[in-house]
Design brief:
This protein is of the alpha+beta class. It folds into 5 domains: 174 residues, Multidrug efflux transporter AcrB transmembrane fold (Up-down Bundle); 88 residues, Alpha-Beta Plaits (2-Layer Sandwich); 104 residues, Alpha-Beta Plaits (2-Layer Sandwich); 171 residues, Multidrug efflux transporter AcrB TolC docking domain, DN and DC subdomains (2-Layer Sandwich), CATH 3.30.2090.10; 221 residues, Multidrug efflux transporter AcrB transmembrane domain (Multidrug efflux transporter AcrB transmembrane fold), CATH 1.20.1640.10. It has 34 helices and 30 strands. Strands 1, 2, 3, 4, 20, 21, 28, 29 and 30 form a 9-stranded antiparallel β-sheet that branches. Strands 5, 6, 13, 14, 15, 16, 17, 18 and 19 form a 9-stranded antiparallel β-sheet that branches. Strands 12-7-24-23 form a 4-stranded mixed β-sheet. A hairpin with a 2-residue loop joins strand 28 and strand 29. Helix 10 packs parallel to helix 13. The radius of gyration is 37 Å and the shape is elongated. 44% of the residues are buried. Keywords: Membrane, Transmembrane, Transmembrane helix. Pfam families: ACR_tran. GO terms for molecular function: xenobiotic transmembrane transporter activity. This is HAE1 family hydrophobic/amphiphilic exporter-1.
């Protein structure tokens, strides 16, 4: 080949090109983004609409349904999901992965514009937004100290602005703080004496805290701006606010209210490592990089600590980049270990440091060139792309091994250095190109297949492809060039490695003997192979199915829910008991963040103080003796003994699926019927092995007190519904009248009724409402209070009501659990008009398996097409394709022995094997043809080719297998994702190699005889 000859003739030029590529690769690597998984571009649009005061049923009928109908006809929509909650509607549109979301958003806005005129008067303007389900906080940072109000102030004024200035940071949210405010607590009796209402007090406070312009006056040659100052400068100024009574008398605010600086009412608590804290969550920009943002925030933390008082501490609670860094480090270690194993195999076979060095140089060149190609194609450094490099580390030297081994053969025949390099590389180059191309083409269908499997594993496919292309180029240029310069002296076989030569000679002799017998008993050989393949297929039902193995990130979530309507103190008592459970394992807990209760609002008489949640980060996997799942199960058993609360413990993972592992979606017209069915399904699946913490989306609402205004009675007093609701809201929740600026702070001035006057039903009924005539009437005169069960969220999918039963998966595989659920659900009699389907990860898994099965079929076809072009006939490629069924034995046996289910990574491994296992057969058949063209008789050509090619076949197979051993063990953080892929390739390639070496020559003779008969006829 001209490329080989040119590289030998121009060694300086080849060297300069390689150095330039290496330099470009180092620059590219420094600029590559680092993340856990590749960016998944899921085109999702959201339409959010407010409808204040409306119940879920009204929201669904008047807002959700019209919007659903308007967007349902937009091209490219796969699924429409909708939620109708008290006061708001949310319609989520999920488009097919090939949809241009920018164009889709324009179509959504046009469709919504057509119906927004038909929405009820009280509905707000619908907002159309793009939605990124992966836009989760990168970090959580906690401030701990003695005074939460001070912590809140420091967060808002010092830390938040500092963090938001950092490169790549999108936004910084603050949770768990208590804000300071000026509280104006009204004295209702004094107000009644003066005939005043809370609204009049609020207007007086608002109007008294204003500064305004008084125009311009001249003074000599200057114009002076006149400004009338009227803003509050102290609390005394607020107390001295003048209020005019209906009797045209003037009183001060202090006469009818108490004015004090205080904090907002407590409706929740936040804890960091068991201490009260204020927590900030940091979100990255859409195009931001997780690790880079983490580095920026960590640098900013040092600056922040210098500004904080001595009694305030700021520390990182959770940093998602930590696991990414550890995962990438683990993959790099596995890559280096694989490279070491591959080099040791080369040294063992080649018996020459120079020859080993010649081949080993192709590894760093291929890796660094891959980084360059990744940079220019927009890929990121993540556990899949780096895993692809680690998987390909053994394959990178395959081409170099075959070429160098053939060059050595010519050198042993007495050729000069340059002649051996030229003839040896040129003769074997077509077979090397063919074998590498067959490995490459199997990835083409993955790139073009839609769905989540393609989104996740296209980067892996591209990375392996880049590495193989770079290694092939190095094999055809660098290896011949270095061989012509460095292989001056060959080993004579003497010395400490002589034992290996004798062992290898015995193996070759044994193999040739087995091959000779197999050629004499061809039918028996075919029969034995067929029986072994069929026997391995019988193990398939025992493998199980899984989506993508979850990495052990050491993160656990604890959810606590006390009985509906419980107050904050009751929930805190339960939380203390949960804390005691986790404290027993304090040695393995690195950090924890707990949030208890949340603020209530609106017209609901109460707040969601009956819930709490924890995020717990365990120490790294290598520093503990138990897995995250084992800790989760232990805690779950212990918290079930805590009375008075529903507590669940689950593992948090970096799942790439949008749903829970197990989801049973119930569809039908009536929500109450769906709720009953959901309870039945929860009971049915709860005792299935592997199902953990089953629950339904139709949870029972919390009790609340609804205020129902009698509009006819209100009209008799000259009042409207809105006027009454405004006064009630002001008295129960308080109303912000203005802002008070002091010492660089801006505090809200809240007008409210004292808590002890609005704490019971009787006190609420006795609240005074001011009429337009100035009279004060009791609330119960124009309204009634009704205690009801709080409204639930109504969900719909594809314009049909839906309730979802979901559960976690523990100790079993997804396929087995899903089949058991499906079997039990088939016995459930559903009313007419109701149905169910299995969603979540199970649905994603089956869709991905379908896409990958199609990709496998296309890959096999492309492998055959490439070989047909290479051999320039259809027969020899067809013979080589018989090596594919033999890989099934290794794949199934490998998964069965290691106890791994058939998952998406394992399926990807099968597709990769389709391109790898044929390489040995290509090299073998190609050399048989070369010998036969030289006049060697068929039987002798086969036996000689087998003995001659066994050495390079063993070298290429063992380097690939041993290069993947570290990944197959699942060493380090995040190793679970690549483990099934590596296991499949190792076992599949090993068994295929052993069987192919005998089977392919037998099949070759059978088809050669058949072709001769056809030619004679």
């Amino acid at each position: 080949m001209r490329l080989v000859e040119s590289s030998i003739k121009r060694p300086v030029g080849v060297t300069m090109i390689i150095l330039a590529i290496l330099a470009l690769g180092f620059v590219s690597f420094r600029n590559l983004s680092v993340d856990l998984y590749p960016d998944i571009d899921l085109p999702i649009a959201v339409v959010a609409t407010n409808y204040e005061g409306a119940a879920p049923q009204e929201v669904e009928e008047l807002v959700t349904k019209p919007i659903e109908s308007s967007v349902a006809t937009i091209e490219g929509i796969d699924t429409i999901q909708a939620q109708s909650q008290p006061g708001n509607s949310l319609v989520v549109m999920m488009f097919s992965t090939d949809t241009n979301l920018d164009n889709a958003l324009l179509n959504v806005r046009e469709s919504v514009d057509q119906v927004k005129g038909f929405l009820p008067d009280g509905a707000g303007e619908p907002s159309v937004l793009r939605f990124d389900p992966q836009q989760m906080p990168v970090m959580w940072v906690g401030l701990t100290g003695d005074d939460k109000a001070t912590l809140q102030s420091l967060s808002e004024e010092e830390i938040q602005p500092l963090f938001e200035r950092q490169q790549g940071v999108g936004s910084v949210g603050i949770e768990g703080g208590i804000s300071e405010e000026v509280r104006v607590e009204l004295d209702q009796e004094r107000l009644n004496q003066f005939g005043l209402s809370s609204q009049q007090v609020m207007e007086a406070v608002r109007s008294s805290n204003q500064s305004m312009s008084g125009g311009v006056i001249s003074r000599g040659t200057q114009e002076l701006q006149i400004r009338i100052l009227g803003e509050y400068e102290s609390l005394d100024d607020i107390r001295e606010t003048s209020i005019q009574t209906p009797q045209n008398e003037f009183i001060e605010l202090a006469d009818v209210a108490t004015v004090e600086r205080g904090t907002t009412e407590r409706t929740g608590e936040s804890y960091v490592n068991g201490k009260e804290a204020v927590v900030m969550n940091i979100l990255k920009k859409t195009d931001g990089n997780t690790v880079a943002v983490s580095d920026e925030i960590n640098n900013a933390l040092s600056e922040a600590r210098e500004k904080l008082p001595d009694n305030v501490e700021i520390n990182t609670v959770f940093d998602t980049a930590d696991f990414i860094r550890m995962s990438i480090d683990s993959v790099v270690q596995n890559l280096l270990l694989g490279a070491v194993f591959a080099i040791l195999i080369l040294l063992l076979f080649l018996k020459s440091l120079r020859a080993t060095l010649v081949i080993s140089l192709s590894i760093p060149i291929a890796v660094i060139t891959t980084f360059t190609l990744m940079y220019f194609t927009g890929e990121t450094v993540n556990i899949l792309t780096m895993g692809g490099l680690a998987l390909g580390i053994g394959m990178m030297v395959d081409s170099a091994i075959v070429i160098l081994e053939h060059i050595v053969t010519y050198r042993e025949r007495g050729y000069s250095l340059k002649e051996a390099a030229k003839h040896g590389a040129s003769e074997i180059a077509p077979a090397v190109i063919a074998s590498t191309t067959t490995t490459l083409v199997v990835f083409l269908p993955i790139v073009f297949v839609d769905g989540i499997a393609s989104e996740i594993f296209t980067p892996l496919a591209l990375t392996v492809a880049f590495a193989l292309i770079a290694s092939l180029a190095a094999s055809l240029t660098l290896i011949p060039m270095l061989s012509s310069k460095m292989l001056k002296k060959l080993s004579d076989g003497n010395g400490r490695r002589y034992w290996f030569d004798r062992l290898l000679g015995k193996i070759i002799g044994m193999y040739q003997g087995i091959l000779s017998r197999a050629l004499k008993f061809r039918k028996t050989s075919i029969l034995i192979t067929t029986i072994v393949i069929v026997a391995s297929l019988a193990l398939i039902p025992r493998l199980g199915l899984a989506f993508i193995p979850e990495a052990d990130q050491g993160q656990i979530e604890v959810s606590v829910e006390t009985p509906a309507g419980s107050n904050l103190d009751t929930t805190l008592d339960v939380v203390e008991e949960v804390n005691d459970v986790m404290a027993k394992d304090d040695a393995i807990v690195e950090s924890s963040y707990g949030s208890v209760g949340s603020s209530g609002g609106g017209m609901s008489f109460g707040s969601t103080t009956n819930s709490a949640s924890y995020m717990v980060q365990l120490v790294p996997k290598g520093e503990r003796d138990v897995s995250t799942e084992e800790v989760m199960q232990k805690w779950d058993e212990q918290v079930q003994e805590i009375p008075g609360a529903d507590i669940s413990v689950s593992v948090l993972g970096a799942s790439v699926s949008g749903g829970d592992p197990i989801q049973v979606e119930l569809n039908g017209p009536d929500h109450d019927v769906l709720t009953e069915l959901a309870d039945q399904v929860t009971t049915i699946i709860s005792d299935i092995e592997g199902v953990h913490n089953p629950g339904t989306s139709a949870n029972e609402g919390r009790p609340e007190m609804q205020i129902v205004v009698d509009e006819d009675t209100a009209a008799e007093y000259g009042m409207t519904y809105q006027q009454i609701m405004g006064q009630i809201s002001s008295k129960l929740n308080g109303q912000i009248a203005t802002q008070f600026r002091t010492e660089g702070e801006e505090l809200d001035v809240r007008i409210l009724t004292p808590k002890d006057e609005r704490d019971t039903i009787e006190e609420v009924e006795d609240l005074k409402i001011a009429t337009p005539s100035g009279d004060q009437i009791r609330l119960e005169t124009v309204a009634s209070l009704e205690q009801v069960q709080g409204p639930v969220t109504l969900t719909r999918q594809n314009q049909q009501r839906r309730v979802v039963v979901s559960a976690e998966l523990v100790g079993s595989d997804l396929g087995t659990v899903t089949n058991e659920i499906d079997s039990r659900m088939s016995g459930l009699e559903l009313p007419e008009g109701y149905d169910y389907n299995i969603g979540g990860q199970a649905e994603d898994m089956m869709e991905a398996f379908g896409d990958l099965a199609l990709a496998l079929v296309f890959s096999i076809f492309l492998v055959y097409a490439v070989m047909a072009v290479q051999f320039e006939n259809f027969l020899h490629p067809f013979i080589i394709m018989f090596s594919l069924p033999t890989m099934i034995i290794g794949v199934i046996l490998g998964l069965f022995v290691t106890g791994l289910p058939l998952s998406i990574p394992a399926f990807i491994g099968v597709i990769m094997l389709a391109g790898i296992v044929v390489n040995n057969a290509i090299v073998l058949v190609d050399y048989i043809n070369i010998l036969r063209r030289k006049g060697v008789e068929r039987f002798e050509a086969i036996v000689e080719a087998g003995g001659n090619r066994l050495r390079p076949i063993l070298m290429t197979s063992l380097t690939t297998i041993l290069g993947m051993i570290p990944l197959s063990i699942g060493l380090g953080e995040g190793g679970e994702a690549q483990q099934p892929l590596a296991v499949v390739i190792i076992f599949g390639l090993l068994f295929s190699m052993l069987i192919t070496l005998v089977l392919i020559p037998v099949v070759y003779t059978l088809f050669d005889d058949l072709s001769r008969k056809i030619v004679r006829k």
